Amino acid sequence: MAQRGTKVNRPFSILVANLSGQFDGNGKPIPTRMGFTQQLVNNNPNQLQMGLLTGAPAPATATIVVIDNDFTTGAAKLTIGEFELESGIHYTPGGTLNATAIALAAAINNLPEYTAPIPGAATVDVSGPTGPDGGFIEFDVYYEGTKTNFTLAPTTGFFDDGAPVVGSPIIF
Fold first, then answer.
1. pTM: predicted TM-score of the whole model, two decimal places
2. Nearest Cα to 155, choosing from 170, 165, 141?
3. Residue 100: pLDDT over 50
């Protein structure tokens, strides 16, 4: 499982000497100066990106839709980050899709750094940590039985990224 946590240094500027492609009267190239203001962002798993963080802070997100309330053929094991929620152990499936979604949201709310508002329908919206690490937070389900109880979004196996995100450096 990937370690989570983004490390960001303060923005810094670098001057880079470039040649303009033009020459002075003596045939010497005319130097120009160009620079960058950027940050080094170390995402998981040890991915170093250069740019500037942009955007207001927002959590990583994912959605679970309860589509079948029959857990009698085997448990559903939902992975959220480093946590696993198993039906019948961490939450009790209810008599309706909505009741199961409510029980699942309550279980998610007990996980550190994750929230899920109590749903009014069978859809559970999950919020994770703030920042660009969503693409590294595992989000998947394993069924021990024959029933598919949930649909997940995104379907990549990971949360959608939060914000801020790594944008372009400033070039001057």
1. 0.76
2. 141
3. yes
